[in-house]
Design brief:
- By secondary structure, the protein is of the alpha+beta class.
- Helix content is about 45%, strand content about 20%.
- The protein folds into three domains: about 110 residues, 2-Layer Sandwich (Beta-Lactamase); about 70 residues, Helix Hairpins; about 160 residues, Heat Shock Protein 90.
- It is built from ten helices and twelve strands.
- Strand 3 and strand 4 form a beta hairpin.
- The radius of gyration is 38 Å and the shape is elongated.
- It starts with 10 loop residues before the first helix and ends with a strand.
Amino acid sequence: MVIPSLAPQNEGVLFETLFDLIPFAIYAMDTTDYSLVYVNRSMRDRTGAAPGQKCYEAIYGEDSPCFFCRMRELIDVQGKPKQETLIFEHFNPLDDLWYQLQEKTLFWPDGRTVKYSIAVEVSALKATQNRLAEAHAELALKNRELENLNKEKNQLLGIAAHDLRNPISAIAGFSELLLLDGMDAEVKQMSSEKIQELSHSTLDLLNDILDVSAIELGKLALERAPLDFTQLCVSRLDVFRATMAKQKQISLQLEVKENAALSRVNVDKQRISQLLDNLISNAIKFSPTGSLVEVFLQYHAVPNSSVELRIKDHGPGISLDEQGKLFVMFQTLAAKPTAGESSTGLGLAIVKKIVDAHNGQIRVESIAGEGATFIVLLPIA
């Protein structure tokens, strides 16, 4: 029994039929003049391209070879096929779709060198990849944020362990002195004053730590109410005149413009008091004994109703390089407080958060060696 041969009479027709059944765009172009020599059904249906047309005209609507065409990577200097296959992705602006292209050069039956291309539409896959990449980037960002929070937590614990232990130990020591029988009145007075001083500094640090925790948890809520901004500045300066400024013999000077307009300002009194305390105490800390700290207050009606607060010291100033560290949690400057006062790097960061919560702005103007001026602008409309 003779089994008839299943070999086709015309292999070209068979391959052309098979290519027409494939749902991907397949086409071949002459490498010398960019004319199409073959397109399968999927390609014809998608673009309307036909043999004889220029590849760049039929597929991309261009009037010259496409800038992204990589044909020269597939043929040698004599125009002969290289034994290479290119696989790359390309976006077609005509149909707003992404394609993965696989290209190779071969000899056409008549001896011409042609470039075969298979184009698979991968827009859905590309969109999924983009979503995955975005999710990965977001996850990486969250991981960095968690790492930073963990780092800040450890820094906060370090500050609490160091900066709270020392004053509390000192308070305990001075308290024991007060309990001793026959203690000299002058020593008792000194011990009482030290206990009061250390208690206030410890309380300030605890408040800073609690505020940092509230800020990081997004709980820096404002309770706005009308207040006399000038009177608030006067009362806070009076406190410092009796404490820090008195100890360093520093004069505190207040200048006010447009005072009547500042009598009913709608802000959070507690937070603005905290802002004033941090900025004034910083100015005193970094000012030399016997110098001057100037506070300037002004109302601006235009372009929007706002309060401008300036606090100027005559200390060592802040270099341009170091100004970038300001308002960042736990950052301390090279310049140190002039009388050895403590500085945790929390105060200005909290001030920045308070200003931001009021939709305001804060900046510093300073030249190293010539003091610093902190400028706060708070909208009050």
